[in-house]
Amino acid sequence: MVTNYIQQYKEYHKDYRKYPGNNLEPQLHHILQLMQETESTTLLDYGCGKGYQYHNNRLPISPTLYDPAVPEHENKPKGQFHGVISTDVMEHIPEEQISDVFREISQYATRFVFLAIATDLAIATLPNGENAHCTIKPLDWWVDTWWHSAVRDDIQVHIKTYGQYEGYQII
After folding, report:
1. Do residues 139 and 165 touch, judged by C-beta distance below 8 A?
2. Angle separating helix axes 139-149 and 95-108, nearest 10 degrees
3. Who contacts 156 (Cβ-Cβ below 8 Å, separation ≥6)?
4. What confidence score (pLDDT) does residue 17 get?
5. How many CB atoms lie within 10 A of CB 29?
6. CB contact at 8 A, 93 and 101
7. H or E segment and range at residue 43
8. What pLDDT band is residue 1 in, cutting at 50, 70 and 90?
9. Prediction pTM value
10. Is residue 134 within 8 Å of residue 92, measured between CB atoms?
11. Is the separation of the CB atoms in 113 and 119 below 8 Å?
């Protein structure tokens, strides 16, 4: 049986307290540095959750928000952005869909991509009882998967993993 993860997350997000988007803060210094280094003025948060992390926005711009499981952010953005960030998202996507997601993310970015990926099982479970983190892989796996999926070498890509597999690589 194949789980429809987006539907599971739509159910999960009905509780206003769940996935507020609170994993931006620990990554903010990396993102701000990338924005400065690449002189970026447009940003997409891919998998923003409810977007509450931007209520007290410490970024110099207001990013475009996208999350297919949150009704107010479910429409795919149009165009491209200097940077695309995704924090605490990739581990929620089934392994067999990661390559497609990486290709999509790479098409949105013109200067950089920043991915922060948890490498532990989640405390949270989905409505169907499955762990919310379905793809737990070490940094090398994420880097190799990017290289075999995104087919772009004209943007900076920063991948940070945390949890049982900690690391940071610029590709």
Report:
1. yes
2. 60
3. 34, 38, 111, 112, 113, 170
4. 61
5. 9
6. yes
7. strand 43-46
8. very low
9. 0.93
10. yes
11. no
Q: What are the structure tokens assigned to 6, written together?
A: 């987006």
Are residues 150 and 165 in contact, defined by beta-carbon separation less than 8 angstroms? no
Residues 6+ apart with CB under 8 A from 84: 43, 44, 46, 105, 108, 109, 112, 113, 114
User: What sign results for the dihedral spanned by CA atoms 112, 86, 45, 92?
Assistant: positive
Cα(70)–Cα(50) distance, rounded to whole angstroms? 6
* Phi/psi of residue 132, nearest 5 degrees: -65, -25
Q: What is the pLDDT of residues 151-160, one digit of tens each?
A: 788 999 999 9
Compute the residue count for the chain. Answer: 171
- Helix, strand, coil distribution of the chain in percent, nearest 5: 35, 20, 45
Of 16 and 123, which is predicted with more confidence?
A: 123
